[in-house]
Amino acid sequence: MKAQDRREWIVNELYRNKKVQVSALAQTFGVSEETVRRDLDKLEKEGLAQKNYGGAVLNAPVNRDPSYASRHDLNLDAKRRIAEHVLALVQSGDSVMADTSSTAFEALRLLTERREGLTLITNSLVALSAFQQSGHRLIGTGGTLGASTSSFVGPDAARTIERYNADVALLGCKALSMHGGICDSNEAEAELKLLMRRQANKVILLADHSKFDRLAFIRLFDFGEIDFVVTDRKPAEEWTEFLRGRGVTVVVGEQDAESEDSGV
């Protein structure tokens, strides 16, 4: 059994029984206990398991939903590199649905400057305010406004999204896990992301390197339901093969080779 298949089996066992034992897993898989411990190390890194003496227990994710202001400057250089590489995927005249992620905002900022005749459909109050004089057509979803998230959510927002068919959806996320899928932390916004994905012809996931091998509260969708992942650093080979196997194209906006690693 391959390592990825073992870890998938362990995750399922954790969800069923909330705990696993190293010795029992080693016997089940016919591998050494050290091999099982490495599997558990990987799952602990992803936030799925918490190791303890002799095994591990399920690590229930925490529902954290930071404000837009606290998210905007986090890994900002990485988000801007990602935005540069979104340009090649969006053409003048396209209709674009975008969520409230700060990475999507950076992508929209460049698109409104370098493309013409766009139609932008978003539930982001920040984006609607920033680009209202851009000369592009803006459609706000309406709905209930979250004070800290600066986003519109609820049934009215959902109905607006369902009314339109878009060329492109630009979606951010909180975490990417091979076992847990594409994840987010805000349930109301997650529902709108699902609708945007459904209504768009091309789905582009924007995720900087810090989102990989992490888990968040809400599973959005599987990797086979998106077309592109645009990120700021080349993922590990394991991730590259995983995404390729699901028909996802990875677009990397890396730093210049001479630039010093700033830790973003």
- Uncertain segments are 256-264
Overall structural class, as computed from helix and strand content, comes to alpha/beta
Q: Estimate nothing, just give the exact number of structural domains.
A: 2
The CATH class of the largest domain is: Alpha Beta
Structure, briefly:
This protein is an alpha/beta fold. The protein has helices spanning 3-17, 22-29, 33-45, 68-72, 76-86, 102-114, 125-130, 155-163, 187-199, 237-244, and strands at 19-21, 49-52, 55-58, 95-98, 119-122, 137-140, 144-145, 152-153, 166-172, 175-177, 181-184, 200-206, 218-221, 228-231, 249-252. The strands form four sheets. It has a seven-stranded parallel beta sheet with strand order 6-5-4-9-12-14-15, with helices on both faces. Strands 1-3-2 form a three-stranded antiparallel beta sheet.
Blueprint of the fold:
Layout: H1 3-17, E1 19-21, H2 22-29, H3 33-45, E2 49-52, E3 55-58, H4 68-72, H5 76-86, E4 95-98, H6 102-114, E5 119-122, H7 125-130, E6 137-140, E7 144-145, E8 152-153, H8 155-163, E9 166-172, E10 175-177, E11 181-184, H9 187-199, E12 200-206, E13 218-221, E14 228-231, H10 237-244, E15 249-252
Parallel strand pairs: 4-5, 4-9, 5-6, 9-12, 12-14, 14-15
Antiparallel strand pairs: 1-3, 2-3, 7-8, 10-11, 11-13
